[in-house]
Specification:
single chain, about 50% helix
């Protein structure tokens, strides 16, 4: 995000190429990564990933022989619209200019259809619940994939493990943390070949991933460590998670 726009040798921008790939995906009923590869092949005779790496590292600009080879390709002489539209069906090309402009405006605004809408007001309310929960924990929940949870370098885990809650609010805490976990997972898909899956199959992808998932049924009433110490560590992690989620709201201009 907020990165300088990159361009293929033909002048096609990366953002425009992504939009063309989405249209190509629908037109040919192919995976998004395949559509991206087709466009990258026509532009640089590379896969999408290879092309992005070449452009990002400036290797492409420094390799004169590669430039000459690519520019010699007939496809490279095609403009951005020609390269993608020739592969599209007649039906896909019937989309009106007005619809295209609307789609472009939405994407330029950075609108992403996350599975769950999260507002800052909800984060503030949850933060207040965490504050009020101080010293009252009687339920301790270890998340799935606990082994993948890292700390912030100061001994505090980025996700509570275990989560210290009460019997009455354990379900709510787990539900909120799972929404947060899914949001951060989806946020990390932006600007990748899986961005188009956000709000579509991203929930299934998240559930099968190594992201933390909390189930109130997986709780322990008694732990060997000092409960107060565990509760303090859990609170610190919760504040970190709230800040991580809040950063996704700021970046995408959702309600603040």
């Amino acid at each position: 995000m907020n990165q300088l726009e990159q361009y293929f040798p033909s002048g096609l921008s990366i953002s425009r190429a992504k939009k063309d790939a989405k249209k190509l995906k629908k037109a040919k009923a192919i995976p998004l990564n395949q559509a991206l590869d087709e466009i990258a092949q026509s532009e640089m005779n590379l896969t999408w990933e290879q092309a992005l790496k070449a452009l990002s590292s400036n290797d492409y600009g420094q390799n004169a022989s590669l430039n000459e080879d690519v520019l010699a390709l007939p496809e490279a002489a095609l403009g951005a619209e020609q390269a993608s539209s020739e592969a599209m069906t007649e039906e896909s090309c019937e989309q009106s200019d007005e619809q295209d402009e609307s789609l472009d405006e939405d994407e330029e605004k950075g609108e992403v259809n996350f599975t769950n809408t999260i507002y800052n007001s909800q984060l503030i309310e949850f933060e207040e619940m965490v504050d009020k929960n101080s010293g009252q924990a009687d339920t301790f929940i270890y998340p799935a994939n606990e082994v993948f949870i890292q700390d912030n370098g100061n001994g505090t885990k980025l996700w509570p493990s275990p989560l210290a809650a009460t019997e009455s609010n354990a379900d709510l805490f787990c539900d909120m943390l799972n929404k947060f976990s899914l949001r951060i997972f989806e946020y990390d898909l932006i600007d990748t070949i899986y961005e188009d899956e956000i709000g579509e199959t991203s929930y299934e992808m998240w559930y099968e991933s190594n992201c933390p998932i909390y189930e109130s049924s997986d709780c322990e009433r008694e732990i060997t460590a000092d409960p107060d110490f565990i509760h303090i560590k859990s609170q610190r992690s919760l504040y970190i998670v709230i800040d991580m989620v809040r950063s996704t709201l700021i970046s995408w201009e959702l309600e603040m």
